[in-house]
UniProtKB/TrEMBL annotation:
CDD domains: MFS_SLC22A1_2_3. It comes from the Eukaryota. InterPro entries: MFS_dom, MFS_sugar_transport-like, MFS_trans_sf, Orgcat_transp/SVOP, Sugar_transporter_CS. Keywords: Cell membrane, Glycoprotein, Ion transport, Membrane, Mitochondrion, Nucleus, Transmembrane, Transmembrane helix, Transport. GO terms for biological process: dopamine transport; histamine transport; monoatomic ion transport; norepinephrine transport; serotonin transport. It comes from Erythrocercus mccallii. SUPFAM superfamilies: MFS general substrate transporter. It catalyses: tyramine(in) = tyramine(out); dopamine(out) = dopamine(in); serotonin(out) = serotonin(in); spermidine(in) = spermidine(out). This is Solute carrier family 22 member 3. The lineage of its organism: Eukaryota, Metazoa, Chordata, Craniata, Vertebrata. It is found in: Apical cell membrane; Basolateral cell membrane; Mitochondrion membrane; Nucleus outer membrane. Residues 103-516 form the Major facilitator superfamily (MFS) profile domain.
């Protein structure tokens, strides 16, 4: 009785059918990365803003002032009285009414100089002068409310975290494609509602839900792609990361062409509805079907794959072996129950956390400081493109483990060197820091592939989702770690990044090498993977199986 991998080899491990499914599902990376980085443009700080004095709007209408004249009457006297006060977060503690004159509205306060007039903090009535709207101007996320912009990104990451657990679990229990389509629908609906949120609270609620469903689309499409190709073709797990980078590169173009934050939000949300058409062209993962004792459906899909690939399954492929392993609902205990699984899970969780923390930390450090925001963001995304190509040319030649370790060590060295380079050669500091970002990007992309290859089919989606949830935790911590440590010493965050990356580079050497090895189907298969110091590429012996006719 043939195993699934034997049937897949006969039907074609990466034929026309898999290429089509791969291309279609890869588009998810573009929409997901746009959601991931959208806060840069949704929350763009206004070029200029100031606080209105109570009654100023009515007086301005009566006097026929232009906005510039109103600002001069409001902010200029304040600035003359105290040069450190710009009128953004403080205003004169006065009120204008109809008795105020149009030419000198402060005349009623007699001989008091503006420097002697009381000041009051501004809590509302801001006026924004900018050609493009953002959630900052929409919901007044300035001055004492500025922290709420950071909260919006933290809420999105919390949504990613919830999606990793909830939808990762659901995909292993109810099916990959079903949860993928549900997640696409959720991202689209929540994104549209967020675009028209009447207040910031509603925006946060649907920002969280969009993050949760967005994580469901990305993780599930990745698992489907890796499960329908042969062991020698799982490099597609790296290639799909290129589409994530393409989303980063495309996003500034979208933001440049659309002047409102609502338009940007709709542009990155509406394409998810198109993915619902995949219901008719992307099948359920046959590997998952086999684990749920649905051999007939799996075999039907395999015959369809063979037909589209221009091949024909042999007559004796009337049944496919499925494991004796009892199928149950996955839990965290399943990921740490056996020695190999426990070691793999803990190392992978640390690798996800470290990659995300360092990646986002270096992005924020390199910043996009001044200059053209759209061009700078485009360039920062383009820097990531070489990472996938470097992996493609090395990972199937020398394996997964060595590039995984070397990329982390290279990032560690780059961060350490950058920290001690003198400030008078900024171009060199920027160059070395960029190499560090390229290295950690490679590590980030390899962990996706390695994670999916080290879990059995019954736990794969749940395992990848749970481990990658540490990525979201790292994303939440990164800005706080960066800015708090930088307040002590500007280069201190780089020292911490260097230590974290070095430890990760050593730990991943303890993982099994999975180059050229079939995806594990059961916990027993995981335990039989080559040891970290053993030879890789050995074929596993066939386990006891039942057949499904």
């Amino acid at each position: 009785m043939p195993s699934f991998d034997e049937v897949l080899k006969e039907a074609g491990e990466f034929g026309r059918f898999q290429k089509r499914v791969f291309f279609l599902l890869s588009q998810t990376g573009i929409t997901f990365s746009s959601l991931f980085a959208s806060v840069v443009f949704l929350g763009r700080a206004p070029d200029s803003f100031w606080c209105r004095i109570p009654g100023a709007a009515e007086l301005s209408d009566r006097c026929g002032w232009t906005l510039e004249e109103e600002r001069n009457f409001t902010v200029l006297p304040l600035h003359l009285g105290n040069e450190s006060v710009r009128g953004e977060c403080q205003r004169l503690d006065v009120a204008w009414d109809t008795s105020a004159g149009c030419t000198s509205p402060l005349a009623r306060y007699g001989n008091h100089s503006t420097g002697q007039l009381p000041l009051a903090p501004c809590h509302s009535n801001w006026v924004y002068e900018q050609p493009r709207s953002s959630i900052v101007s929409e919901y007044d996320l300035v001055c004492g409310n500025a922290w709420m912009l950071d909260l919006s990104q933290a809420i999105l990451n919390l949504g990613f975290l919830a999606g990793a657990f909830i939808l990762g679990y659901a995909a292993d229990r109810y099916g990959r494609i079903r949860i993928y389509l549900l997640s696409c629908l959720g991202v689209g609906i929540c994104g549209v509602i967020a675009a028209f949120s009447p207040n910031f609270t509603v925006f946060l609620i649907f920002r969280f839900l969009q993050g949760m469903f967005g994580k469901g689309t990305w993780m599930t499409c990745y698992v489907i792609v890796t499960e329908i190709v042969g062991s020698d073709q799982r490099i597609v797990g790296i290639v799909i990361q290129i589409f994530f980078t393409l989303g980063i590169i495309i996003l500034p173009g979208i933001a440049y062409l659309i002047p409102t934050w609502q338009g940007i939000q709709l542009a990155i949300s509406l394409p998810n509805f198109l993915f619902l058409l995949y219901y008719w062209v992307v099948p359920e993962s046959p590997r998952w079907l086999l684990t749920r004792k649905k051999g007939e459906k799996a075999l039907k899909i395999m015959r369809n794959i063979a037909k589209h690939n221009g091949k024909f399954l042999s007559p004796h492929y009337s049944e496919i072996t499925i494991s004796n392993e009892e199928v149950s609902n996955p839990s965290f205990l399943d990921l740490v129950r056996t020695p190999q699984m426990r070691r793999n899970t803990l190392i992978l969780m640390y690798a996800w956390f470290t990659s995300a923390l360092i990646y986002q930390g270096l992005v924020m450090r390199l910043g996009i400081i001044g200059g053209n925001l759209y061009l700078d963001f485009f360039i920062s995304g383009a820097v990531e493109l070489p990472a996938a190509f470097l992996i493609i040319v090395t990972i199937d030649r020398i394996g997964r483990r060595l590039p995984f370790a070397v990329s982390n060590i290279a990032a560690s060295v780059a961060c350490l060197i950058t920290a001690f380079l003198p400030e008078d050669i900024p171009w060199l500091k920027t160059t070395v820091a960029t190499l560090g970002r390229l290295s950690i990007t490679i590590a980030f992309e390899v962990v996706y592939l390695v994670n999916s290859e080290l879990y059995p089919t019954t736990l794969r989606n749940f395992g990848v989702s749970l481990c990658s949830s540490l990525c979201d935790l790292g994303g939440i911590i990164a800005p706080f770690l960066l800015f708090r440590l930088a307040a002590i010493w500007l280069e201190l965050p780089l020292i911490i990044f260097s230590i974290l990356a070095a430890v990760c580079g050593l730990l991943v050497l303890l993982l099994p090498e999975t180059k050229g090895i079939s995806l594990p189907e059961t916990l027993e298969d995981v335990e039989q993977l080559p040891s970290h110091f053993g030879k890789c590429g050995k074929k596993r012996k066939h386990r006891d199986t039942n057949s499904y006719i």
